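Re: nicotinamide-adenine-dinucleotide structure - here you go.
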Amino acid sequence: MSHAHTKLAGLYAYPTVIPEIPANKDAKLVLVTGGAGFVGSHVIDRLMLQGHRVLTGCLDNFYTGSKRNIAHWADHPNFCLLSHDITDPLLIDVQFDRIYHLACPASPPHYQSDPIATLKTAFMGTLHMLDLAKRTGARFLLSSTSEIYGDPQVHPQPETYWGNVNSIGPRACYDEGKRVSEALVYSYTGVDIRVARIFNAYGPRLSPSDGRVISNFLTQSIQGLPLSVYGDGSTSRSYQYIHDLVDGLLLLMESQYSLPINIGNTCEYNLIQLANLVIKITGSASDIVFAEAPIDDPHRRRPDISRAKEILGWEPKWDIEQGIRETAEWFRTISMELRPEI
Ligand code: NAD
Ligand code: UDP
């Protein structure tokens, strides 16, 4: 996705003016659960900007999301915000065409802070949203995760790999929660489903208090604080920029493919490489400090994206330097007003 595209969608600095949206005869009624969160708010931006005259509903309980992420759409006639906890059924009489089901805390500190809430969101929340999809005839996309592969013994990970998850560890509420979400959508009958296995994403609107590594490293480097590397620094992930992820999710939703598809970037970085990159891009004088590795932290992860390439014609377009530069710009913009929270 080109830089120009991002600037068109450059809504993430909380603007007061939004671009005019052209009319489109193929307008769809779309519900985005978790729409006030990091990924959901970008999905909503894209749907609103696409010119599809998308009537977008955002459903969220603001557990980890923020109304500010979608505030720029608040007065738009195509947009509606529903405050709702998906662990309760949603009995509304609206015929949605599409449901992007993204509601679930995604950062380890957040999903581990109340593991039962995470499990209830993954199980009951997904079940309730499937019920809604069935009642309304909506196509349903589940945001699953690379975490279902656990600490993988196969590298890189294709969709056919069954994973290596500790079912009683601190990450289990999320990993097993998402595995049960997948089991639910494939057991449920009568709903047209799509399943995205999302690998680590980053970008503007990641909350500075999110706790995920790029958010922490950027917050720390902008403040001149040492970057907290957990473990010996050799742990790796493959980080995708938010706009690539949104491209992939929208393509998957409109595809005819119902099996899981990995959406991720194949460029793998260990923590030392990532920390040095963030320090270089932000021009920071920060150091690195080492802290204990979290229990069950997967040691390495990289997607096999052959399926996404073949079925969706999708592959990431943003390299990590570009993405981190733009994310750093956003963190700088908000760092003053959010300082007390950090
Ligand atoms: P996020 O925490 O920023 O957003 C999640 C949103 O869901 C928040 O707005 C939160 O308030 C809402 N939510 C949580 N529980 C809810 C409930 N019970 N009822 C209603 N709303 C609820 O997370 P994110 O990074 O935007 O992730 C979005 C989705 O993508 C999640 O399902 C996550 O598992 C998946 N995912 C994300 C990543 C990533 O790197 N960001 C990677 C893999 C999978
Ligand atoms: N991590 C780190 N410092 C931080 C936060 C995370 O070194 O301040 C590490 C974490 O232990 C993991 C990697 O960064 O090895 C990615 O963590 P994140 O929480 O971003 O994503 P996930 O573990 O869910 O893939």
